Amino acid sequence: MTSPPGCSSYLALFVTFVLIPIVYGLWISLHSWDFMLPDKPFIGLDNYISLMSPDSVNFSPFWQSMQASAIFTVASVPLLLVVPLAVALVMNANFRGRNVVRAIYFAPYVLGVAVVGVVWRFVLDTNVGALNWLLGALGLPDSIAWLSSLPAAWVALVGVTVWWTLGFNAVIFLAGLQDIPKELYEAAKVDGASKWQAFRNVTLPGLRQVTAFVTMITIIASANMFGQSYVMTSGAPGPENKTLQAGLATLQAANSVRYDLLMAAAVIASVPVLLLFVIAQRYVIEGVSRSGVKG
Hints:
CATH topology: MetI-like fold
Distance between the termini: 29 Å
Number of helices: 13
Structural class: mainly alpha
Helix content: 55-70%
CATH architecture: Orthogonal Bundle
Shape: globular
CATH class: Mainly Alpha
Order of helices and strands: HHHHHHHHHHHHH
């Protein structure tokens, strides 16, 4: 029995760039990995105990950053699923100028995080920002510190991230919509189904695998958010919105020649993401098994 074409190459790449780095990172986390010293003594679970012990100096910054990443992920992922799907439904309709609309929605995604952060930092500035000026013109509170107070900073970070990245998810959803056989919609129309019923019984099942994929990549991207927070808020209003990447950077700065503690923190942080990934994978498998009759 021969392997599928490309299977061996994929396995080699997976082992080289995924499996070996993971094992090596675990190995480092179990040793005192000081690059200034020739020996790397085995210390077992000391790094993990340090990160899990409330009386440790590493406990607070690490878990505060984990909490910040969790808040951002929980707030942003649902929006980055629902909003792009709604946009994809609009872009999938037949109307004049739809290619222009598609380009407009996708355009922000081609910008770098530094450009997006700087532009929105000016827009959201408390004193001279365009958003507060607009709120004042509408008779609403116009002195909101969008980038230096909570929960306003979370609203700003999540809102900017959705605006910036929804085009990418929308394009993926659009490809999934175009892959659904039109005969299914015609059959639903013949059966007297409303638009909502067709969406619930044809569109959503047809997008099951696409939704699982978008969910996985969105969770991973949200859990690793750093650039928006760093450029827009510059650490304000405090450690409450320092996400995981910022927390790891803090640990690295405090332990500049030791990478063992950093590796242990990365291992702990990867556990919830891995669990969500496994759940999404099961969702994909279930979708494959149920989509045989759906084309």
